User: What shape does this take?
Amino acid sequence: MSDLARYVIRRIILAIPTLLGVSVIVFLMIHMLPGDPAQLLAPPEATIQEVEMIRRRLGLDKPLWEQYIIFMGNALKGEFGKSLFTGHTVSELLWPAYLNTLTLSVLAMGFGLVIGVLMGIYAALRPNTVRDQAVTSLSLFGISMPVFWLGLILIEIFSVWLRLLPSGGSGTPKHLILPSLTLGLVGAAYVGRATRASMLEVLSQEYVRTARAYGLPDRLVIYVYALRNALIPVVTVAGLIFGYMMAGAVLTETVFSFPGLGRLIVNAIFARDYPIVQAGILVVATTFVAINTAVDILYAFINPRIRLG
Amino acid sequence: MNAKTLALAAVVIIVVVAAAVLFMAPKPTPVERKVLRVAMGTDIVTLDPHDVPDNPSIYVISNIYEGLVEYDDKLNIKPVLAEKWEISPDGKVYTFHLRKGVKFQDGTPFNAEAVKANFDRLFNNKELANRNRLVPFIDRVEVVDEYTVKIILKEPVATFLNLLCHPAGMMISPKAIKEGVDLKHHPVGTGPYKLKEWKPNTYIELEPNPNYWGGTPKLAGIKFLVVPEDEARVQMVESGDADVAIRVPAIDVQRLKQNPDLNVNVTRTIRIVYIGANMRSPRLQDKRVRQAISLAIDREAIVEKILHGVGRPAKSVLAEELIGFYDTGKLKYDPEKAKQLIKEAGAEGLQLNLWTPKGRYPGDYEAAQAIAQYLEAIGLKIKLRVWEWGSYVAELLKKPEDASPDRDLFLIGWAPSTGEYIGVFRPLFLSESIPKFNLWFYSNPKVDELIKKAEHAPRDKIVEYTKQIQEILLDDLPAIPIYNPGDVVVYKKGIKSLYYIPTEVILTKYAYFGSGG
Amino acid sequence: MLLEVNDLRVSYHTDEGVVRAVDGITLSLDRRETLAVVGESGSGKSTLALAVIGLLPKTARVEGSIRFLDRELTTLREEEFRRLRGDRITIVFQEPMTALNPVFTIGRFMRDIYLTHREGSEEEALSLAREWLSKVKVPGPEKVLNSYPHELSGGMRQRVLIASSLMLEPDLVIMDEPTSALDVSVQAQILRLIAELKSQVDASFIFITHNLGVAAAVGDRVAVMYAGKVVETASKREIFSNPLHPYTKGLLKAVPKVSGGEVEPIPGTVPSLVNPPSGCRFHPRCPLADGRCAEEEPALTEVEPGHWVACHRVSGMGSGPGTGGE
Amino acid sequence: MLMELDPSTRRTLRRALRNRNIRVGGVIVAAFVLMGLLAPFIAPYDPTKGNLRDSLLPPCPKYPFGTDFAGRDILSRVIWGARTSLIVSTVSVFIAVVAGILVGGLSAYVGGWIDEVVTRIVDVMLSFPDILLALFVAAIVGPGLENVIVAVALYNFPQFVRIMRGSALQVKEMEYVEAARAIGESNASIFARYLLPNSLAPIVVHATLRTAASILTAAGLSFLGLGVQPPIPEWGQMMSDARTYLVTAPHVWVFPGIALFITVLGFNLLGDGLNDVLNPKMEV
Assistant: This one.
């Protein structure tokens, strides 16, 4: 297991330069946004001197590298300053929204994984039959479906016609159903495709034939021997999708007016609320990198060959 | 079965029956003190009444803070912290007799010194967004005795009491001011409710102020829920997840009216949505072009089709409810005349930019697109641009020399939160207000003079001046009034004394659940 | 007879047409006998192996009969067939590098085989596995049980697979080119191992190879296949001393000799199985072919006791025309 | 025409024409392209001019898809929307492909620290989930057609760098490339004659699939208000506008959604099919 431990540590260290790069890009890009935040913040009758004062207070007068170091130093402590407009600390706004998006994504991912993997196996066991084509078409529909349109359709069905579920908002578990269903269906489509492809690939492998040749029962061959291998690429896809969900939730969150991170970022972009945009993007990108790292580590657990590599 | 068992059984039965009877017996039902849940569209910005830039903050603040005087739902002035007042014959000195026995929520007594401390805060603190509402008019504030205070104006202002109804006139605990409490997050007023919790972007919850001078508040609390999606707010009231929904889409009015459990209140506002015309744009120099634009727009159709009847076509730069309103009859729909004016001005095929925010005012973005169609119909070429509100404001507030050369026409709304005409004329049309809210860079000495006269005119002479001002403005048309949006509030039947003030403020502090609900 | 294959035909429908991978094969195998099946790739020998162990793709069409332990395998229910596989019939494939599941340890694999076919505990499974790993001369069986396939060399993996095939003492072991994917030095070791094991176990073997030399090393009898058909079958000695079919002779010339003589490859390529040549399928490559060979298909005839050949030019005589023998 | 092609190309073409995904996807994509190109001729009305008095009409003979809030014909806007999507997706993918080929190819070919730096930057760019990157760029450069193209191109770019770099690295080591270099063929010529053609198949497949994703992303940006500006007809924006009329006028969002869905489906089918035909072994 020391192989594994070494691998885990190396993989985590490898993520650090990427994260630094991400933080630099986030930091720099924010300074390319149009509109001067100091000017925006000042009351209409403020004089130039007063605007300058505000600029100083926000540290916008310091050289860029110094601002970056301050920014990173604070970010590592989990401090992202204050929202320019409401005066709340960014953490106060960020973490609840992050938690919401995380809850949404985890639910959607769980849903997507279960449905997707089952669909993928179902199709792969009888390739090129009607049921395979049905699953393949369904998943192609899923990945071609604009997620916001799907959301609108689900609202039309479940909120407008059936009056079963709220069309938006948050607070109760009921509010999570439609958004996570929307995201999850798209996720299921990707997972289903990946599972099918990978399962087909694995089922054609020698070792599956070997397992059959030794008379191992189908249950064991398919759900243990093949699936464990087939899940390796699925884990990558799932990791990517999870990252996509964290960020892509912005569309779903907009449709369902769900107070998640994506919406927080978009609203902050509209309002030119620098600290929130910075922190939000940084957090999403960090999560994305973290998920990818976690996926690689998970890999090592599923696939012993990786540990050496 | 022996006697002992029998006795035991009897006891058990009696106890059970008695308990059941006790449970089922009708209990006297006290008037229910519930929490009023209000679904609103955006989170509040601040709880500091002197610094508030937005209406949602005022919804909340008006439960916590009170002013000397206050508007009722018809824009009449009524006494609150001042019991009565006298105005000197020259109109410059206002003497207020304060209500006795009022305490701030931190226990500080409310008195004349407290009033002075609040005005001092406005005078001394230049960063406060709302100081301009009052400070330019006031010369000084004098404490006469513990419960009497004098406000001396620089010049008479006919609508000074209206100005005091603005949140800028609300009273903050002098102790909190002195101690430098973070008033943005920790309000200390005299109102019936006080802050319990503000969870950003989620809710603001208020609890009753047990020491309120007007008696114990009738609600167990007020919870303002932040629900940005229009449809979601409606749905929450329909499903019982909220009691009140603010800014309900007009398109839902017909449907909601059929719901027997709901009250649908279509209210009037004092907001006018204008198409601003940059007076310094080379393309808009000719007055006839601006007049043609005004004549090209079918305001009735916009109100009917885009506002779905919730609102009225604008008749002037002022809303009809405001003191000083005068209908010049100039805002008509006459596309033929418009075409003719364009021809006369030699402006056929003139390319103009039209800017609009989206979602800031009811129907803004939709109306801008409709207006673009109307203008193209009289032979202009329109390039539409939708802005995010933050950069829109930043761009519009730029000095004329820094302003984008593309600024021609832009949609902007204005509601004087003071609820009177000065709040329109002074910021929007006075030459001095360039480069602030005079977004059209309009400068007319005659208008400047008339505005100042109107400000200081005795109350019965006001319209004389405002009529002239409106005649000129509707001829020059730096800002082309389009519509006066209404507002829709939906609430559960049984809620009483929920007021809507035309300054676009929902007043919840008097509300209670009646027997019906 | 342990195994009797009678007029077996296996075909597939593909976009290009019907592929007749095995086209009428008849052979039989006694207990403790080893049959070496020789042929170039594409001759249908692997299809034959898969047909016997019942692992043909679902798209394959099977005609004829395969009798094993008095059961007809071609119509056997899949579940019953599965119970035979790994227990009574086992197979060792060509590619040891990919034949083992990369995510499970050797111990897990061998344990699963045991527990599938026998009532018993995990300990019993592992101890049997350990025992067999020693028998196939795997150094450190305990460590190997806990290893993943990628931690073992190709030769080691093939030993593991051989151990797995023999562990439950099957009646029939099919070896489908078990050495051709290995290094030459390892090949020899494995061949030696197989020869050794043959004497230790009570099983029959079908040994499939493209190399007549290898066939000679292990087989009691040899069957030569060409384009889906058996063209010659005889005892090992007979094949080498008296090869009759021109193809068999060609194969013999193609065997690299230890003495280092000239290796002569057979000219031409294996024909398409969709559109096989008319008459004798070997005639386009046959140095002796005449007009009849292109028209009439020769039947497999017993020219000597136990020596069968399908060639017009051999025509029932004791020795073929122009044969020099070896 | 077929006769003039070399046999392997002809075989690939024949396989492609037999592939059902390619046939269905191809028809959809062709219809979409034609709709975009011919919009001025087939749209019954001007998509940007409506009669306010006719606003929010449900589908009727005069307006088969109904009208929107400004009284504009939704059918005409859906047809013109194809043109907007066509421009945004093809231009942005084209930019990304060209830039990706140049940067990825050169990076692999030159190698050394330049390759190292390029790889790092691409890694970092790929650590932004794509919609976030597009959103971010759109927020910086502001909304508008050109800016959406830039945003979408930028998020596609690193992917093509990676593909091109990968296949260029493979080809670079091949004998015939070494041979070409040995006989003094110029770098540019090696690049054009060997590296490019060998990387073409995965790039074509990926470009088709990215076109589908780009159409979706561009529509998503417009849905958020960061995309194409009105009154230019755009499907995502039409749906965003329709949210107010979710209950009362579903036709406003249903039709652009169908158009968007079918178009994306078409590109995905085509991409899948091309993948089957051109890279039989590539995992997607």
